[in-house]
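WARN  no MSA supplied for this record, continuing single-sequence
INFO  ligand: 6-O-phosphono-beta-D-glucopyranose
INFO  echoing inputs
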Amino acid sequence: ELKEHTTIVVLGASGDLAKKKTFPALFGLHRNNYLPKDCKIVGYARTKMDHEEFIRRVKSNIKTPTKPIEEQLVTFLEKCVYVAGQYDQDESFQNLEATLQKIEAGRPHNHRIFYMALPPSVFISVSQHLKKNNYPKNGIVRLIVEKPFGKDLESSRKLQKALEPDWTEEEIYRIDHYLGKEMVKNLLILRFGNEFFGATWNRRHISNVQITFKEPFGTEGRGGYFDEFGIIRDVMQNHLIQLLTIIAMERPLSFSAEDIRDEKVRVLRAMPQIATENVIIGQYGKSEDGSKPAYLDDDTVPKGSRCPTFCAVAMFIKNERWDGVPFILKAGKALNEQKAEIRIQFKDVTSGIFKDIPRNELVIRVQPDEAVYIKMNSKLPGLSTQTVLTDLDLTYKRRFSDLKIPEAYESLILDAIKGDHSNFVRDDELDASWRIFSPLLHYLDENPEVVPMSYPYGSRGPPVLDDFTSSYGYKFNDQV
Ligand code: BG6
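INFO  complex generated
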């Protein structure tokens, strides 16, 4: 664990991610005394700006609702320094090195965390220049990297290969920010700390699993980036597949990072590549009232793009626990609401005494409003014997109202400071998930006749969605 004398270098410090996520998360850690003692934060980017301008930008996404928080922000900003430089020139990185050495003068160690909040195009160059010019001589080094990790198995491998000569797997922390979300961190406890879940967590009792990601807004100016990747690469191959592996993995031998990640990899390796008949793709059109633009109306989106902004796939796991149970992943932009949830639908109860009684469902809501609830049947209180579908409900806001839920990035940066890899993506895990998705992605990229179905901005997705879900055995309550 890096307890003291650490410098955190944020590369890409003038970008959106750094502004919206990295610096606010670092401030959150500072406020709660989780940053190492004697910690400095160096922002590095191409934009030429003076210290004041940099501080103004850092502040712009940090809220200070109370006086004490305002004071904490002052002490946080005192830790921050900015260095402007190119991403492909040694002189720039030597200049960064001079600043780092000035900060570290008199320290017994020069521990450094490099946080790469960078576009993929400069990623390799920066990692090489850092190794050459800024690798600490007497301290621990950690390299935090952000997706996209390539576009398919081949390009992801290439990226990995480029890092390999310079950085060990031990030094690399690949972020998938979903792994830092409170409810996601709870999944292993829910599964393995509760005997009744453990006992029913298999193909004998579970009919199907749905993992859903919905956003109520479209690309809104971010179309250049998005169009190159699409919803499958942007959300599914990383965030949703992470949720799937944690839901499906066997019990790890321990909570150690390698034990956990070994089990995750094993699940992924038991999954066949996605078959194109198990997929629907969509792209949003204008909203029904015409007030919201279609994907293709976004100026940053190339004309005639076939990029999917919605996708649903059914995936399978060929092992004893899950064989035959569909895992339905759904992700979409410009839908009717914001939501990320896992819905585990159990099988029908043995027939005999009940006719058409709804199925149990365990719903784990990742966001918004973290909750775990179970839909279960109960007798309607009163003199009749009527049954009613009701909830066993753990809604965090009610049960843990006095506890603050940290931002995913706070939690992950803290893990990196502690040297805990459990919630970061290992290289073989990345390969395994790309292997499952790459053929589908190539098929979609290479076949111009495959066009996404249109759905209105603000709707639930393409109209065929419910039929798709039902075809894998999901029973809507109104079907019983
Ligand atoms: C990012 C995607 O990884 O995750 C975005 O690039 C998406 O397109 C975001 O909006 C969703 O994250 P969250 O934490 O808001 O659910």
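The longest strand covers residues 37-45.
INFO  checksum written, moving to next record
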